[in-house]
Design goal:
CATH class of the largest domain: Alpha Beta
Keywords: Lipoprotein, Membrane, Palmitate, Signal
Structural class: alpha/beta
Strand content: 15-25%
Subcellular location: Membrane
Strand order of the largest sheet: 10-7-11-6-12
CATH topology of the largest domain: D-Maltodextrin-Binding Protein, domain 2
CATH superfamily of the largest domain: Periplasmic binding protein-like II
Largest sheet: 5 strands, mixed
Low-confidence stretches: 1-39
CATH architecture of the largest domain: 3-Layer(aba) Sandwich
Distance between the termini: 96 Å
Main location: membrane
Order of helices and strands: HEHEHEHEEEEHEEEEHHEEHHE
Oligomer: single chain
Family: Belongs to the nlpA lipoprotein family.
Number of helices: 9
Number of domains: 2
Helix content: 40-55%
Membrane topology: Lipid-anchor
Amino acid sequence: MVMSLKKYLGGFVAASALLLAACGGGGNAASDEATSDEATSNDPTHVKVAVVGEINEPWEYVAEQLKENENIEIELVKYTDYATPNKSLADGDVDLNAFQTEIFMDSFNEDTGSDLTTLGYTVIAPLGIYSLTYTDVADIPDGATVGIPNDPTNNGRALRLLQTAGLITVDPDTGLTPQVDDITDNPKNLQITELDSAQTARALQDLDISIVNSGMAVDAGYIPTEDAIFLEPVSDDSQPYYNVIASRGEDADSELYRTIVEYYQSEGTAQVIEESSKGSSIPVWDGQ
């Protein structure tokens, strides 16, 4: 009888131990799962933004603000040309891009059948005429060699700038995108060479003058407001040349991306733009 009772109690204790172990194990699993969910919920939302050039203080400032206040992590994907960022956005390799004028984006959409769209405006970066030899457009000699961007929109914009500077005349019927063949008067017989935009500043040593975008000029070490011998005037007619934050059409209503635009279009960002660009980029969103 004693042996039977011992066996009974031993079995009861063993069963109880197994039950407690099972309950304890279940509790730990639930706790681990909750901890994992909490960690996941605290992970930042990652957004890739394509930009052109190495100098991106405004976006670095925006990235800091978004990480601190919204737990959004911005990865700047830097390119050196104007062709790849739009292809990367259209292909889904990046989420947004911010490097181009609205007219440039519209031209890309038309040429490729893409549907990139404007989420918001950022700055206008005036084109400038630069020279290592001359300090005034009036001094540019007959037969001077001139470099201009070769993409259709910046090409036309550069020709219009040469016209504004009094160096050539283009056919007015060509609107915002005249091409070299649309020059109707070239009194100085300028020798115009079309270059990739990224080469317009680097080629200055081989040219009399070159038309350079402000962003490229800053990357090359120039201060547009000081070093350009003629700077593109900014007026109410300049909107086609406003730079934009662009997304794919399917993401046009994304609350996440709208939040990023709101943080960019802030007074703090405007101050960073003014300081970092030395006045060569001008904020153009509403309220500026």
